[in-house]
């Protein structure tokens, strides 16, 4: 019924792009943050301004990664190396930490003012998973996961959460390392071979593959089905409801 291997006991869902359309919110926040920085840098250096391209830059460099790692990854793709900095940095400081903080503030503002769009097919699938008696966890790099789940009305469907806050508290490396997914399975007392990872990001499916989980579902929201398979997805769907329909 759920399109999953026999013996599955838990479903580990990424949040942004899998359950909610906050990926578009994050992409818009990244673009605004990077474009402001790149424009200022170009004006200072007298060089052409090349904006952040959501289609070309979002997936490979920032999607699914912790904010600091995503910030540094994109900057290095442009040949820019900034000092990491720290929490005490001024908002306009030219550090990785300051840029990541600006991006997070924009995300929080957009979530509060615009709200969160939930994928209807994901809600259907989540409810079917719960009705089947499987455990559920949200595994997200975002430090705003609890807020997003609450605003989206999904909290009651999620048994456990391992997010950016959890990773920082436990010292867990972010995706594409498998540690956050492994922590979620362990917290649920489920063997990794009996857990399924649901991810839309290339870094996310790579972490599912690296963790040795029983099955990895790639959710293709950006037209990158082939890349999701190459990074470790066992199957790729454009909407989680397809997994229910395939079993009819």
TrEMBL record:
Presence of keyword Phosphoprotein:
yes
Give the source's domain of life in one word: Bacteria
Q: Which EC numbers characterise this protein's activity in its record?
A: 5.4.2.6
Molecular function (Gene Ontology), one example: hydrolase activity
Keyword annotations: Carbohydrate metabolism, Hydrolase, Isomerase, Magnesium, Metal-binding, Phosphoprotein
The cofactor named in the record is: Mg(2+)
Give the protein's recorded name: Beta-phosphoglucomutase
Reactions it catalyzes = beta-D-glucose 1-phosphate = beta-D-glucose 6-phosphate
Recorded hits in InterPro entries, A to Z, give:
B-phosphoglucomutase_hydrolase, Beta-PGM-like, HAD-like_sf, HAD-SF_hydro_IA, HAD_sf, PGP-like_dom2
Keyword Transport tagged: no
Spell out the family assignment given in the record's similarity comment.
Answer: Belongs to the HAD-like hydrolase superfamily. CbbY/CbbZ/Gph/YieH family.
> PANTHER family of this UniProt entry?
6-PHOSPHOGLUCONATE PHOSPHATASE, HEXITOL PHOSPHATASE B
